[in-house]
C-alpha cells in the first residue's frame, strides 16, 4: 500500500512555529494537500501530539507521535514512536534534561498548548528552543528501547545536522534512513557525500508554517496503514 507522508511537522508548541499551526489546521492542511500520514515533531516536547492524533483519528489522517530532540551536541533528531504512551514516556525523560530556564516569548516565541478542538489550554513555560542535556548516544538508545525510530534530521543543512556537527554519520548507530530537507537536491548532495550512498533518504518539510507542509511529494510503501507498519520501515 502506497501512502503519501510528511514526517516532520511542528505545531504551535514549537516556539519558532506560527501560532496558526493548530491541531485542526495541521490535519486539514495535510488532507487538502493529499497526504495520508504525518508526524508531529515539536522541539523537545510532545505535549501537543495527542491532540493532533485525536483530530487525525476523527478526520481519517494517520498521525505518528514524535519529537524533534535537540541533543547536547546541538544535533536535531526526529524521533518517532509506535504509541502516544511511549512518546510521553520519552517526553517526560527529556524534560528532566532540559536546561532549567523559563521561556521568554518576547525573544523565542510562544509555546502554545492546545486540545483537539484548537482551544488554548495553556503555555509551556520551559524553554524548548535550546539544546537538551541528552547526548546523541543516550537519546538514540532510549528511543529504540521504547520501540521508536530515530532519523537524523535535515542532514543536508549546515546547522543542527549530525553530518555537519560530527563530520560524519557514525556507522555505530546503524541508521537505515536519513532525513533531508524538502528543498534538498539529493543527487547533487550525494555527489558531494558519496559515503552516504548506502543510506535510504526521506524528505520531510520540517514545517513551521501551514504552507510548508508537503504536497504529494514523498511516499512510502507499507503493508498496512497504521503507525507500527509505517515506522517499521525505518528500523
Strand runs, count: 10
How big is the Rg? Answer: 16 Å
As laid out across the biggest beta sheet, the strand order is: 7-4-3-2-1-10
Contiguous uncertain segments of 5+ residues: none
> Which structural class fits the helix and strand makeup?
alpha/beta
Question: How many helices in DSSP terms?
Answer: 8
The overall pLDDT average reads: 97
Helix content: 25-40%
**Largest β sheet strand count, sense and barrel closure:** 6 strands, mixed
Order of helices and strands: EHEHEEHHEEHEHEHEEH
Shape by Cα distribution: globular
Structure, described:
The protein is α/β, with parallel strands linked by helices. Helix content is 28%, strand content 21%. It is globular.
How are the secondary structure elements laid out?
Layout: E1 2-9, H1 23-32, E2 37-40, H2 49-59, E3 62-70, E4 76-80, H3 84-96, H4 105-108, E5 112-114, E6 120-123, H5 136-145, E7 149-152, H6 162-166, E8 177-181, H7 186-192, E9 200-204, E10 219-221, H8 227-231
Parallel strand pairs: 1-2, 2-3, 8-9
Antiparallel strand pairs: 1-10, 3-4, 4-7, 5-6
Helix pairs in contact: 1-2
Quick description:
With 235 residues, this protein is α/β, with parallel strands linked by helices. The chain has helices spanning 23-32, 49-59, 84-96, 105-108, 136-145, 162-166, 186-192, 227-231, and strands at residues 2-9, 37-40, 62-70, 76-80, 112-114, 120-123, 149-152, 177-181, 200-204, 219-221. The radius of gyration is 16 Å and the shape is globular.
Amino acid at each position: 500500500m502506497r501512502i503519501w507522508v510528511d514526517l516532520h511537522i511542528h505545531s504551535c508548541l514549537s516556539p519558532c512555529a506560527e501560532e496558526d499551526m493548530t491541531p485542526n489546521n495541521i490535519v486539514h492542511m495535510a488532507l487538502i494537500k493529499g497526504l495520508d500520514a504525518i508526524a508531529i515533531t515539536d522541539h523537545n516536547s510532545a505535549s501537543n501530539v495527542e491532540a493532533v492524533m485525536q483530530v487525525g483519528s476523527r478526520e481519517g489522517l494517520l498521525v505518528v507521535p514524535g519529537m524533534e530532540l535537540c541533543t547536547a551536541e546541538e544535533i536535531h533528531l526526529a524521533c518517532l514512536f509506535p504509541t502516544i504512551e511511549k512518546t510521553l514516556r520519552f517526553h517526560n525523560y527529556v524534560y528532566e534534561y532540559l536546561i532549567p530556564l523559563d521561556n521568554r516569548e518576547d525573544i523565542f516565541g510562544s509555546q502554545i498548548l492546545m486540545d483537539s478542538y484548537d482551544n488554548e489550554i495553556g503555555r509551556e513555560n520551559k524553554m524548548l528552543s535550546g539544546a537538551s542535556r541528552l547526548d546523541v548516544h543516550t537519546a538514540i538508545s532510549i528511543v529504540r528501547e521504547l520501540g521508536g525510530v530515530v532519523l537524523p534530521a535535515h542532514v543536508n543543512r549546515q546547522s543542527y545536522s549530525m553530518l555537519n556537527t560530527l563530520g560524519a554519520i557514525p556507522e555505530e548507530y546503524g541508521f537505515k534512513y536519513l532525513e533531508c530537507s524538502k528543498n534538498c537536491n539529493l543527487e547533487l548532495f550525494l555527489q558531494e557525500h558519496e559515503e552516504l550512498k548506502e543510506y535510504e533518504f526521506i524528505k520531510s518539510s520540517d514545517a513551521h508554517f501551514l504552507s510548508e507542509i508537503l504536497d504529494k511529494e514523498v511516499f512510502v510503501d507499507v503493508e498496512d496503514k497504521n503507525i507500527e507498519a509505517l515506522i517499521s520501515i525505518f528500523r
